[in-house]
Amino acid sequence: MANGHDDFSDILESQAGIFGSSEQGLEPALKQFETTRSVATREGVVTEIPCRDCGGPAIITIEYPELMAIMQNVPPAEAYQGTSLAQSEWRFSKTHGQWYPVVPCLRCRKPIQPLVSHEEAAALLGKAKRNGWLPPQLEQQCHQRVMAAGMRRQAAGR
Ligand SMILES: [Zn+2]
What we know:
The chain is α+β, with helices and mostly antiparallel strands and 158 residues long.
């Protein structure tokens, strides 16, 4: 990359990023950001997205429990109340039928909307499980929280 973001290149591996072509089902993801770079790590999916207004970078880490919530159409903040994950703000784009985390451009602070499709979330979770990044016990805990939050949403008519 011409303008280089050295801090990010450290974590980029030679393996295809999450939105690369090596994983089936990832193709629809983040299509609108042609120069998006991502890498799946133990901690989550780290993605660098260029701002459409100023070209500056936005860097986000999406953790696997967040993807589990998105898979069930539950905002992570509702599923993981009282944990650090509750701080992440996700919104649903009715236009695209997809969720996105609210993340500001590091340079101009304008919001960037990296849409995450269900197919993509499913593929990422599959990869995380294969790599042992989402231990069964954690997955079970997250599953229960997500389901409980889903029922609360349903009861509230959302
Ligand atoms: Zn910007």
